[in-house]
Design a protein that fits this description.
This protein is an alpha+beta fold. 48% of the residues lie in helices and 17% in strands.
Length: 303
């Protein structure tokens, strides 16, 4: 897989003009123009840059990570360094929108360098992109125009700080708008929780638990066709609990049923539930229930 270490080499691969700044590029259809990508298709590639883009296309699917996404209505997408990007010759973009690309070293040593790691949407798949309302789109466009002004002006000692401040503002607005999107997609969130529980039911009933152990979150997310971070964020917004917490609750609930079978030792219960170490199972059970598995068995066993 081809990897681009510099912003210039990545833009050159796309057929875009050289950036005004070695670590930052801004293309905006309302300003200096949004040049068409000369690459009709591309195998999987990665780079060391962050990308924030608002794009619409006329036709085709874009592959981002393991997911295809239809861009007909346009969306704001966020790509983190070393994310896998791929597209084919069926994609045709409209000549509007914007694209901001900056090398990860551009924000090194700044508060944004730490804050940006907390924004889960940089780990989302494209089908989990942010869809803006007309009002939200105008707010984002206004910030992008401010960034572009600084980008196009002669660089001085204040330019970088101003641009980073505007980038920080853009990401904070995006975070707010994602909260709105989670609320608007509450029905989808409920379905995702149902699919999550259904997958665990099927996994347990098939005997895979004893054979392969407890499924990891990445494996579950992959089966549900969502990114790991999006799954956790969606469940957190809907239920107040993360994916890991839901998995633990499921395991503890199953454990309660098995513990009431007198012929099973606590260690056997742990192994039946896919735990490699019974001591870890006992600690998790006590953390969630306030009593040990043995104490639970004594408390609730049938007389």
């Amino acid at each position: 897989m081809q990897h681009f270490k510099t912003l210039s080499s990545y833009l050159d691969y796309l057929g875009f003009p050289s950036p005004e700044h070695p670590m930052l590029s801004v293309f905006n259809s309302k300003g200096n123009g949004f040049p068409p990508c000369s690459k009709e298709s591309s195998p999987p590639i990665t780079n060391d840059c962050y990308s924030i883009s608002f794009k619409k296309n006329i036709k085709g699917d874009l592959n981002y990570g393991r997911t295809k996404y239809d861009f007909t209505n346009g969306a704001l997408i966020f790509i983190a360094p070393r994310q896998v990007l791929q597209w084919d010759n069926n994609v045709a973009f409209e000549p509007n929108g914007f694209s901001i690309n900056f090398h990860e070293d551009f924000i090194k040593g700044t508060e944004l360098a730490q804050q940006i790691k907390k924004y889960g949407f940089f780990s989302y798949s494209v089908n989990e992109a942010l869809h803006l309302s007309p009002k939200e789109e105008k707010q984002i466009e206004s910030i992008v125009e401010n960034i572009e002004i600084e980008y196009q002006n002669n660089q001085d000692e204040f330019s970088k700080d101003i641009i980073i401040s505007q980038l920080d503002t853009l990401l904070k607005y995006a975070n707010r708008f994602y909260e709105r999107q989670f609320i608007n997609r509450k029905e989808l969130s409920n379905n995702l929780l149902e699919h999550f529980n259904h997958y665990l039911d099927s996994y347990f009933e098939s005997g895979k638990l004893q054979e392969n152990g407890i499924p990891n979150i990445e494996q579950i997310a992959d089966k549900l066709s969502v990114s790991q971070r999006y799954l956790s964020d969606t469940l957190k917004k809907e239920t107040g609990k993360t994916t890991t917490e839901h998995l633990h609750l499921y395991l503890i609930d199953e454990a309660k049923n098995i513990l009431l079978q007198p012929h099973k030792t606590v260690s056997e219960v742990a192994y039946d539930l896919g735990f490699e170490y019974p001591a870890y199972f006992s600690r998790l059970f006590k953390k969630k229930e306030g009593i040990s598995p043995t104490e639970y068995r004594e408390k609730y066993k049938l007389n």
